[in-house]
Amino acid sequence: MKIERLGRCLLSGMMLSAAAIAPPALGASNPEPLVAAYPAWAEPLGEDASDLADPNTPLHIHQSLQGHIGKDADELLTAWRARILKPEGLQIGNLSIPWMPGSATLAIHRLQILRNEETIDVLKDSTFTVTNPQTDAEAAILSGVYIAQLQVPGLKVGDTLDVAYSIKGRDPALSGASSFLMQAPVQALSGKFGLKVSWDEGAGPRWKSTPDVSDEVQAGADWLALEMTNPTTVNFPKDAPQRYGYARLVEVSTLLDWQTASRQVNALFDKARMLEDESALVARSREIAASHETDLARAEAALALVQDDIRYVYIGLNGANLTPATADETWQRRFGDCKGKTAMLLGLLDRLGIEAQPVLAASTGGDGLQDRLPTIALFDHVLVRAKLDGQWYWLDGTLSADPRPRIAPAVSYRQVLPLTVQGSDLLALSPRPLETPSRVEVLNIDASAGYDAPAEVTMRWIFRGLPAIALQSTLGAMTKASAEDQLLQGFGSGWLVGNEASWRWVPERGALEISVSGSADLDWEADEEGQHELTLHAAGFYPPDKRLRPAKQDRTAPWANDIDSFVCRATTTILPQAAPGLRWDHDTGPMMQEIGGVAYWRVGTIRDGSVRTIQSTRTVKAEISPAEAQQANDSIGDFDNSKSSVFEARRPSGDTLHTKTDKITTVPTAGEIDWLADDVPCSAP
Asked: What does the DSSP assignment read for 279-312?
């Protein structure tokens, strides 16, 4: 399974940049683009009177995006003229227009070359080639997206390419609701850019723009427009939360509010989740109920059925980019996307008497959705929220081989939209630090054979979360020999010479365990007196980078952290016998420090002839303020990034083996505890 399958399985029309965005649409199918007259509702492109912003630019462009909300359909027009000033600008002649023939109509209105006083009609002797590259069985995609492509022949430096086309349609599944999300260029552009949205009388849409262009938007009774000349590059603040990545956006929507959107999409799932009494899924629900006593156990069994017996295939054909396949249809096919899997899971839970609802989510997290107008195109995933034994849990049918209901979703969503009969507002979810590491690295180094002999090494990596699921799926698709070869190359390289590798999926823990064994020549150092010292593997920290932004960026914006990051490393090194008169000592200074919302922790000790260390790096804050970032920058100079080491020292007369006092006096070895457990000792008590 690929990580991207967790998202982009609900809608195929997502927000695009300056090129265009088409509304989700259903309608008449046309597998070829039409050649049609310029739409009567649209304004002509007009003349571009702007000066060149940069004489070295390869292109000078005059572009217009125009959307129209009609009585029966919505239409998006893209029109532009590009004057080619340098050879690098000739790439503009590689035309590629995506659309869904089963959902909308593509019409070409104008395609010509303007050369001095001559006008060359490109379509007179050339036609578009239509391909369906996103129908990919290997990638599990049946998207329904086609691409009309044309390499404009004869294009020269000095020519002006004149293009206009439109996409028309509307999704009746949303009771005629319409929406447009248009974005002016966020990269520097030499030329003029304009966008306009108009509507028929009575449509009455709401509109909104991001604050950076609010003063430039003009509006009338049935239209709004934005024009920009030689737009400069938007300087988005570095490493800021997602909501700071919106700029130069204009939104138009006929949806009254989020509750309306929730009700309308919920109606689609209410229909798709219904099971007839004779359905095979009803029989399966009875089997699940008879085999499990609690709601939690029954939900887990139902989720396992959806995850493992229904393979993932994105289905966007015939307008199914929004409408889910029915639960029974998905079961009969034995494949489905997030919509079909969700409908099937809801049908099973209904028959089990478990309260459950579909929830729309954005695979990017949804931070900032509360500032957007209600628009279904902002979401690209759907999962299930169920009440089990009095507690709300999250169930995602696209997460293969991990059927455990979760207190928090596998993705750290910030805003989601529950779908209910009465309609729901956006639901805000607070990102929470991981309680169990997303990765545990357990390293056992047996150096007891001596300083000059290779040490025997066993390395175990334990993954959890989305990376574990994706890697498990990749390895599971390989032969045993191929998977082992891949693991030896990926994990048994560098300082370790790998001999054997293996992996296993532990479903009850939701964990992937990879084991690699081999040998390594350790970098022992000896002083003039023959006393040995070794820098320990995986027992030191790198200092964090400073949080700095260029002067042109918004320095008042907070800084984002990866809240799903929690890495633990446990290293055991079995030592050779110390030389007569010497003892082993160590420098594995205990550490417990938080910098910039990230906690650094380490303990170490010597016991029973081995030196043991455990250290972790764990994100504890999803974002930090500029003041906290400055405090973190000031603390980096005092950060303990010294490497840990073990060394031979002189033993005073009558002294016994000495160890330093650590905050945790007993540090387990690599083999003393179950590192697959949820409560491994990887952070401060």
From this structure: -HHHHHHHHHHHH--SHHHHHHHHHHHHHHHSEE
Q: Is residue 580 part of a domain?
A: yes
Domain limit, last residue, from 218, 243, 268: 243
Q: What is the CATH number of the domain that holds 631?
A: 2.60.120
Same domain, 178 and 266: no
Give the bridge partners for 587, in sequence order: 645
Residue 131 has which token pair? Answer: 């391909």
Q: Are residues 152 and 275 in the same domain?
A: no
The neighbour count for residue 391, using CB atoms within 10 Å, is 11
- Using CA atoms in the order 478, 481, 487, 493, what is the torsion angle rounded to 10 degrees? -150
φ, ψ of residue 286 in degrees (nearest 5): -65, -40
Q: What is the pLDDT of residues 579-590, one digit of tens each?
A: 888 999 998 888
Distance CA 167, CA 104 (A): 6
Asked whether the beta carbons of 181 and 154 are under 8 A apart, the reply is no
Sheet of 591-595, strands arranged across: 497-506, 511-520, 455-464, 439-446, 566-574, 610-619, 598-607, 591-595
Q: Measuring CA to CA, which residue among 188, 238, 148, 192 is closest to residue 629?
A: 238
At residue 134 the predicted structure's pLDDT band, cuts being 50, 70 and 90, is low
Residue 83 lies in a domain: yes
Looking at the DSSP bridge assignments, the partners of residue 532 are 526
In this prediction the pTM is 0.88
